[in-house]
Amino acid sequence: MRLRDARGVELNADFNVEVDEGRLSLVLESAGGRTAGAARPRNDQYVPVLRLLLQRLRDREAVLLSALVASARVSRLSEDERTLVKGPLRLSDVTDVEQLRLEITSAQGRVGLPAGARKEGNNRKRIRLRLDVPGYRLEDAAKLAADLSTPYNEPVDQLAASRELPTATELLDALTGIEIQTATGRPNTVLEVHGNVVRVRTERSPDGRPVDISEVQKGLDKLAERGSVQVTVDELGHRSAFVGAVLATLPGAQFVGSPAEVVLREPTGDDVAGDLHFGELDAVTSVKVRTEQRKLRKLLAGGATVAECALCGDRYPINFLVAAHIKKRAVCTDQERRDLTNIAMLACTFGCDMLYESGWVTVDQQGLVQVRPAADLSESHLRTRLLHLHSRHCKAHSTHSEPYFAWHRANVFAPNERL
Questions:
Q1: Would you say 83 and 130 are in contact if contact means Cβ atoms under 8 Å apart?
Q2: Residue 83: what pLDDT?
Q3: What sign has the CA pseudo-torsion 198, 204, 205, 210?
Q4: Residues 62, 309: Cα–Cα separation, whole Å
Q5: Side-chain half-sphere CA neighbours of 205 within 13 A
Q6: H-assigned helices in 60-204
Q7: HSE on the CB side for 260, CA within 13 Å?
Q8: Residue 264 in contact with residue 71, Cβ under 8 Å?
Q9: pTM of this prediction?
């Protein structure tokens, strides 16, 4: 059986639910190479499927009794030798599903290896998760599998929603002149981007060798779709090491496992806002920030190409509006950062965005714009603008956004200063 994500897309990895040792048991089949005539490698979306299964089991308040490798090659080993996670573990208590997923997959590489082995083995093996799921009896194994395979009016997960990645050209432009490292630690440097080709310097080619930008774009597309991609020729083409190094520079991305894989975790607020210093890779973070702006603007405008500024009420093409955070993003909690429709508003670049950001204007509890005194500004354009804004209704104000506006009034806007 295969599952569909919240957007209805079927993911390429097989699983089933059966009864084992008197318990409901979820079996996820192993990933592998491409077979003759197959369009893609076997179960190559193993990682996002495991992540989504764990999320859906957590939503059902399942208890993970044990997780173990269930491949035929290690069946001779005792269960203790094949155990990946010891239970019982209440999944409702798990705050970081991705960390649990990593624990399950990374532990597989040592199962079945002789003592002292230096190289990790496969970490996409056939596994078995023994479960206790409220509301499901042993005879409900097929029903549980069907329920897990289908979205249940769940929102598109925030990890998927954050995957509007920069284009390959944008990312490579940002990396020009910067040394990046492959999964094995070898240096690669982007020398220049020209047309459809990027020239890359390596230890073997100090003057640089051309790489088709389309190869990088294909890797970005796979990473955006799945959340992870293996650094192999099958997955990323004959320049897979370089493409993997480029993908790993994205905020929230990192190399894991052996063979190496680039995994895109949900960016933290610091990653997205640029508050976390990436040294030479600050340019990459800037690309991510621009990309997030486009996405958030589109969300707030409902996909329209023309929209109103929430403060002045004037209508502008979407490119003249910014997604302004009502409460500064750097001080928001993770939950607040995810409250996309209430934490931000559309503000025009003709003054409203800067006036709000710098504390010249705010929004009161009734949703009316309040401004700082401007008598000393005489008849300046700024005074005229402030007078135009004063007491206008802010269309972004609601009971849900009011706590964010309250923070702005207390921390950015000058208290007790009114016209």
A1: no
A2: 92
A3: negative
A4: 45
A5: 13
A6: 79-82, 97-106, 141-149, 158-161, 168-175
A7: 21
A8: no
A9: 0.46
Tokens describing residue 336: 């607040």
Q: How far apart are CA 373 and CA 228, in angstroms?
A: 53
- Cβ-defined contacts of 37-42 (< 8 Å, 24+): 40/12, 41/234, 41/235
339: three-class secondary structure by DSSP: coil
What the block records as the tokens of 101 is 């997923």
The token pair that represents 374 in the structure block: 């401007």
Say how far apart CA 104 and CA 129 lie, in whole Å.
10
Q: Kindly state the tokens that stand for 389.
A: 């804004």
Does residue 393 contact residue 345 with C-beta atoms inside 8 Å?
Answer: no
User: E strand or H helix at 27, and its extent?
Assistant: strand 23-28
Look up tokens 């209805």; give the residue: 8
150's enclosing H/E stretch is none
Q: What is the pLDDT of residue 120?
A: 58
Q: Which amino acid is at 1?
A: M
Q: How confident is the model at residue 289 (pLDDT cuts 50, 70, 90)?
A: low
Token output for 316: 């502008």
| Separation CA 101–CA 86 (nearest Å) | 14
Alpha-carbon torsion (336, 341, 347, 348), positive or negative = positive
Structure token digits, residue 44: 């190559």
The span from the CA of 250 to the CA of 229, in Å, is 13
Exposed, middle or buried by CB within 10 Å (0-12, 13-18, 19+), for 188?
buried
